[in-house]
Design goal:
The complex is a heterodimer of chains A (918) and B (379). By secondary structure, chain A is mainly beta. Helix content of chain A is 3%, strand content 53%. Chain A has a 24-stranded antiparallel beta sheet that branches. Chain A has a five-stranded mixed beta sheet with strand order 19-26-27-22-23. In chain A, strands 1-9-4-5 form a four-stranded antiparallel beta sheet, with helices on one face. In chain A, a hairpin with a 6-residue loop joins strand 57 and strand 58. The longest helix of chain A is centred in the middle third of the chain and has 10 residues. The radius of gyration of chain B is 22 Å and the shape is globular. The chains are: A mainly beta (918), B mainly beta (379). Chains A and B meet through strand 34, strand 35, strand 36, strand 37 and strand 39 of A and helix 1, strand 1, strand 10 and strand 18 of B.
Chain lengths: 918, 379
């Protein structure tokens, strides 16, 4: 969660002008004195920018109504005779013209005071409230005090009092309820500290204070301390709303509700606490995505993202907008960016914003966190001090990692992290025992360097350098009997590094700039026997976006997304088979083709997107994206439209008292066109067919979100994706294969999600997806189920803090079995003998026409932490497949395919880790 | 490009993350009718050449008097995608029962077939201008303990359109019917020699083989009751002159008689029968084929990259018709790393006494092959 601060550039929220006592005022009995209660500032809309203490761009500017006409109430005679005084709290509805349209008594006082106050208030006039410069109707509380002691003559608005007010409200970040009984320490320009405690509504008030700069510090048991600067001006009330983050196990959690509203139909965000605690993932953040609705289960531990029936290569992963080529070490062992450096993961399963392109499936955008330099006291107690060094070191069964963070000076902070696997120490002997000669056992490492600064409250600069390297070299002296060309020297090397600079700033009050530039290198070196594949790529990515607030409720985003990459590729091997095609026979027997090419990828894209909020309930985001790919010579135009409407609750009711707000019900929908260029080998002059067009998909989505409570939210979403222009191929007489854009397909499904948002104790969700994904290689060819189609996918997971450092979690999944292409059975011959390989090649039936048995699995995780005075020790045990279910992952055959048996997946697999943190 | 990088990595992870599979009988154990190799006298042919094919075959039921017929079908050149399945499209158009109208047929363990002179000019040149033009010619075969018949062809079905039937009309299963194919690459100017087997060792000592390469054909024909239909088949060298197989001759005298009893006198081919109940606990012996390392060719048509040499990938498969073999597929030569000195398998001695055979088939990734058989005995 991010605490809310006043809007950028220190503009304080202003309430009604205070009516101040004049020293030496004339005492007039029975004179009613109206004492307005500053109106609470409407908190930002859900997901809207709740700025960090240093404020964030994008927050709407709200100006409260200013009273221009006061009507004095008649003092009730009986009450006056009885010497009674009272305070009546009213709710005033003020329209866009500043007229009071409705008066309601919120806190009655009786004795005729209510009626008198209401009658007077009906005649008030105001300068109307504005939001981003547009007049809006508001409802404000108004306290009308009847007193007999002092005659307080209302001063004309033109008179300038010499004091101001500082008032505000504390709310709990995430849960969004008021924070009562919290101590607020206010230090004024004279250095005098005043302490107040928030009331039941989380409100505090300091009235008649000297104008100037104030420091406000918030402290509450179980919540992270906050300190902010506020400005009190003469004759004005500065009203603030702070969202205070709860402390979780000594670590300050940052909740992402501070983000701007999504531009997409659906954005699923995994928060830091969730990403490191999902059972069965060993704390790997990116694996937690595989437990979300709409994401199919990959085989084994493969690091594949299969989103809403799309192929794995149809989903892309970005790190703060820069594409990352290899998100997993060795294709699935561990992600290349450690969880400790991630702020959040945003996952868009479809119908995403026009800022993302050249992808048809889903988008995962990972945000790196700012270096953490917050100081902790004894036994990990959080303090409000910053500028300390922190670090951690961890060892588990696969790798060791370390992280150090701290200040540099001049406002800069840094984080340095590194990780190296040590599986080579035990995998090497295992491989040698199987007869393989090990030249270099599998080893990986990755490294990250982050430096950040906030030159001003409205700007942020971040410089990063990240990289990864996987290496493996073994000599397989026992080739596979089924394909003996798969033997001999096996070399696998995959590496990348990226330097990245991010800059975010508010150029003006209504113009924001976000710019990212990344450059680096990606390399792949793979060889197995005579087959070789070498790639050297030097990508430069640039992504910039200008956001213009033209008018209240109208924002226009213009963006440039640019990729330029010189490359060299060498390939020697047979043309690879494609899903849905029959087995082509052993690689040993197929002609080897070669390609050695140097060229440059140039793919610029431009996009424009509007964020329209015609009412506080509605949000419409039309967008248009134009992509060009020099390698294919084609351009793609992708229009998109997303919309959300709050039927109940939501932003429209944020100004209401807590008790009057209704749980949010939102309907949402979207339609959009998505293009994805062909893969390299599909347009290559040797392996493919130049001139192919991009694959095309149209997404349709319709759904409902329902807030069930502060912590629990549910959603149902239906989707349909229509594929056309899919790249497919056909064998051509005397000339290998010819590729074309003849493929078709469709995906339809329903996702349901019930989520308990993280709180101090628990987080969890239950997700169920029903879907069907089909393809056709051409309009004339038969339809078949997509390779990774999974009809049913139910995932239920949760993690609960027991106390005393213990936490326990479980994940249970029950999912449709994988698909298999059967071989022909008797009386047909099951396989042919490929004499040149000395092995059989199967004769197969319809592709992916056989569904294997249902998959089910339970993963369990236990954490225990010990907090010492100066450091913290934690351990975890993560048991994958805890009841050792023999899940069927495929089918094994004997040498001539006359017998078959199920191939089962990984057995029970415990993973143990130990971490120390300073 | 990024997606391709990811795909390779994912394939590796899937392999590393694989779980458990079933334990089937090893392909190295000969328990039924098996085709072991097809040797070509010209693994790389030229347009207009005639190529001789010779099949090494083993039938565990031959000793029971079963007779096996071998039929060949040639004539499929440059099929779509250079895939064997592309040949089925042509077969589908053949009139029922009239294979001879479309394919050249042959019988026996030896088969000669011509490469058309237009095989290179009939197809477009390679898209990579540095890659030499090539053609592919497929030959199908059916080894059948019965009678081979053409089946009705369904263009939509991948089923092989040849069946094997007993004289009574009953279909013969995989135990007595093996169908397959071999492929000949055609270049104009490139040579590919077969691996050259010179002998076999047991426990580090050379033993006299029964036969090597072509010399095995008459032996097999005699054992299987086959009569060669090709004049001169079984002789060393090509029937039409020229320089088959790059000019190298295989070792081993053609038709040389093997020792009648490897245990008389006792030699390295004589073992004590295994008396253990568990065949996996039987004593093991090292068996290793001896291949001439100079028979490894550079992979001429392929380009070397940077400083990497590209040679043939060569391997050996061992087979036995009694006892068991461990590590029965071994690397002989790696395309990048070169010769592998340790290419032996482990023979677990049989639990039944008697004579038995050990085969070793050496192949390369360009269609070259050679084979050797040795007679052994468990007493």
């Amino acid at each position: 969660m991010q605490p809310v601060t006043p809007p950028p550039r220190g503009a304080a929220r202003r309430s009604l002008p205070a009516l101040v006592l004049l020293a030496g005022g004339v005492l007039l009995p029975g004179v009613a004195r109206a004492e307005p209660v500053p109106a609470p500032v409407p908190p930002p809309a859900p997901g809207e920018g709740s700025p960090a203490p240093e404020s964030q761009p994008g927050k709407p500017v709200v100006v409260m109504p200013r009273q221009s006409r006061f009507v004095e109430a008649a003092y009730p005679k009986e009450a006056e005779a009885a010497g009674k005084e009272a305070t009546v709290v009213l709710f005033l509805d003020i329209d866009r013209d500043g007229k009071v349209t409705r008066v309601a008594v919120a806190e009655p006082a009786g004795d005729g005071f209510d009626e008198a106050a209401a009658a007077a208030a009906a005649g008030f006039e105001f300068e109307p409230a504005t939001r981003d410069g547009q007049k809006v109707a508001v409802r404000i509380p108004y306290r009308y005090r009847f007193t007999l002691k002092t005659v307080e003559v209302p001063v004309p608005a033109a008179a300038v009092p010499q004091v101001g007010n500082l008032t505000g409200q504390l709310r709990v970040a995430g849960a969004d309820g008021p924070l009562a009984a919290a101590e607020v320490r206010v230090t004024g320009p004279d250095g005098v500290e005043t302490r107040v405690v928030t009331d039941a509504d989380g409100r505090f008030s300091l009235e008649g204070v000297t104008p100037g700069a104030y420091r406000v510090r918030v402290e509450a048991e179980g919540f992270a301390p906050m300190e902010l600067g506020e400005e009190v001006r003469v004759g004005e009330s500065t009203d603030v709303t702070y969202r205070v983050a709860p402390i979780v196990a000594g670590t300050v959690e940052i909740v992402v509700t501070g983000q701007r509203p999504p531009r997409e139909v659906t954005r699923r965000t995994i928060e830091r606490r969730e990403m490191s605690r999902v059972p069965g993932t060993s704390g790997d953040a990116l694996r937690s995505i595989q437990s979300l609705p709409g994401v199919a289960r990959p085989p084994g531990l493969a690091g594949l993202l299969i989103v809403r029936g799309s192929a794995p290569q149809d989903t892309q992963v970005f790190v703060d907008g820069a594409n990352v080529p290899n998100i997993y070490h060795f294709g699935g062992l561990s992600s290349t960016i450690p969880t400790e450096l991630l702020e959040r993961i945003d996952f868009y399963p479809g119908n995403f914003s026009a800022r993302y392109g050249q992808v048809m499936g889903g988008v995962v955008d990972v945000a790196l966190r700012e270096p953490n330099t917050r100081c902790t006291g004894d036994f990990g107690k959080p303090t409000d001090k910053k500028g300390c060094f922190t670090g951690l070191a961890q060892v588990d069964l696969i790798d060791t990692r370390a992280l150090v963070q701290g200040p540099i000076g001049g406002g800069w902070t840094f984080a340095v992290a590194g990780r190296r696997s040590w599986i080579d120490s035990w995998v090497g002997p295992v491989l040698e025992s199987t007869g393989a000669g090990v030249t270099s056992a599998p080893v990986y490492y990755d490294y990250q360097l982050i430096a950040e600064n906030r030159p001003s409250p409205d700007s942020r600069v971040s410089v990063r350098f990240i990289g990864s390297d996987d290496q493996l070299k073994i000599l397989v002296t026992q080739p596979f009997a089924e394909d003996p060309a798969f033997g001999g020297n096996l070399t696998f090397g995959s590496n990348y590094y990226r330097g990245q600079v991010l800059y975010e700033t508010d150029l003006t009050r209504s113009v924001e700039l976000t710019a990212m530039l990344a450059a680096g290198h990606s390399g792949l070196d793979f060889s197995l026997g005579p087959v070789a594949f070498l790639v050297d790529l030097y990508p430069i990515n640039q992504r910039s976006e200008l956001g213009f607030k033209f008018a209240p409720g109208v924002r226009l985003n213009l963006g440039l997304d640019f990729a330029f990459a010189p490359y060299r590729v060498f390939v020697r091997g047979p043309a690879p088979p494609r899903p849905g095609e029959s087995d082509p026979g052993p690689f040993s027997t197929r002609p080897l083709l070669t390609q050695d090419e140097r060229d440059t990828v140039f793919r610029p894209a431009w996009y424009a997107e509007a964020e329209l909020t015609p009412t506080r309930r509605a949000r419409i985001v039309p967008g248009l994206r134009l992509d060009y790919a020099r390698d294919t010579g084609h351009e793609d135009l992708s229009p998109r439209l997303n919309a959300r409407y709050d039927l109940l609750g939501g932003r429209a009711e944020e100004t209401l008292p807590e008790a009057e707000r209704r749980r949010r019900t939102t309907v949402k929908g979207g339609v959009g066109v998505f293009h994805q260029p062909p893969q390299f080998q599909e347009t290559d002059s040797v392996f493919g067919t130049p001139g192919l067009r991009s694959n095309r998909s149209v997404h349709y989505t319709l759904g409902v979100e329902q807030e069930l409570s502060r912590q629990v939210e549910a959603g149902v979403e239906g989707y349909y994706k229509d594929y056309s222009q899919l790249v497919s191929r056909e064998p051509v007489l005397g000339d290998g294969f010819a590729y074309g854009n003849r493929g078709l397909g469709s995906v339809m499904g329903i996702e349901t999600l019930v989520k308990y948002k993280p709180d101090a104790r628990f987080f969890g969700w239950a997700a169920y997806t029903l879907s069907r994904s089909v393809r056709q290689n051409s309009p004339r060819s038969p339809e078949y189920l997509f390779q990774f189609d999974q009809t049913h996918n139910l995932t239920v997971l949760g993690s609960y803090r027991l106390g005393r450092g213990w936490e326990i979690g479980a994940r249970f999944r029950i999912i449709s079995g994988p698909l298999n292409t059967p071989v022909l059975s008797a009386p047909s011959l099951a396989a042919l003998y490929a004499a040149d390989a000395g092995a059989y090649t199967p004769l197969q039936g319809r592709p992916f026409s056989e569904r294997l048995p249902l998959f089910h699995q339970l993963d369990v995780r236990i954490d225990k932490a010990w907090q010492f005075r100066d450091w913290k020790l934690s351990t975890y045990l993560d048991v994958y497949n805890s009841y050792n279910n023999a899940a069927v992952e495929g089918v094994d055959y004997n040498f001539n395919y006359t017998r078959q048996a199920y191939q089962t997946g990984l057995p029970i697999l415990p993973s143990l880790g130990v971490r120390g943190e300073l | 490009m990024r997606r391709t990088v990811r795909v390779v990595g994912v394939a590796l992870a899937a392999a590393l993350a694989a779980g458990c599979g079933a334990e089937f009988d090893s392909p190295s154990e000969l328990r039924s009718l098996r085709v072991l190799a097809v040797k070509k006298d010209r693994p790389y042919a030229r347009p207009g050449d005639t190529v001789r094919l010779q099949m090494a075959l083993d039938d565990a039921s031959a000793k029971d008097g079963r007779r096996v017929n071998v039929t060949w079908f040639s004539g499929c050149e440059n099929p779509p995608g250079d895939l064997y399945a592309g040949c089925f499209l042509e077969l589908a158009s053949a009139p029922p029962g009239d294979l001879a109208g479309l394919f050249r047929l042959g019988e026996g363990l030896t088969f000669d077939f011509p490469i058309s002179p237009e095989i290179l000019s009939d197809r477009p040149p390679p898209l990579n201008p540095r890659q030499p033009p090539f053609g592919t010619a497929f030959v199908f075969f059916a080894a059948c303990a019965g009678e081979v018949r053409l089946e009705p062809v369904d263009p939509k079905s991948p089923a092989f359109p040849i069946g094997c039937y007993t004289p009574e009309g009953k279909r013969v299963g995989a135990e007595g019917f093996v169908a397959g194919y071999t492929q000949v690459f055609v270049y104009d100017g490139y040579v590919n020699r077969n691996p050259r087997i010179t002998g076999i060792q047991i426990d580090g000592q050379r033993v006299e083989p029964e036969c090597i390469g072509e010399a095995c054909i008459p032996l097999l024909e005699q054992e299987l009751g086959l009569v060669s239909t090709v004049p001169g088949a079984g002789d060393a060298g090509a029937p039409d002159g020229g320089a088959p197989d790059g000019g190298a001759t295989d070792g081993g005298a053609p038709g040389a008689p093997a020792p009648s009893d490897p245990c008389d006198p006792v030699g390295f081919g004589c073992f004590n029968v295994c008396t253990k109940e568990d065949p996996d606990a039987c004593p093991d012996h090292s068996v290793e084929v001896v291949v001439d390392p100079t028979s490894v060719d550079p992979n001429g048509p392929l380009e070397a990259i940077e400083d990497r040499k590209i040679l043939e990938q060569m391997w050996v498969k061992y087979y036995v018709d009694s006892g068991k073999l461990l590590e029965s597929t071994r690397l002989l030569n790696d395309a990048a790393e070169g010769w592998n000195e340790e290419a032996d398998a482990k023979l677990l001695t049989p639990q039944e006494p008697g004579l038995f055979h050990l085969w070793a088939v050496a192949q390369d990734n360009r269609g070259g092959a050679d084979f050797v058989r040795v007679r052994l005995k468990a007493r």
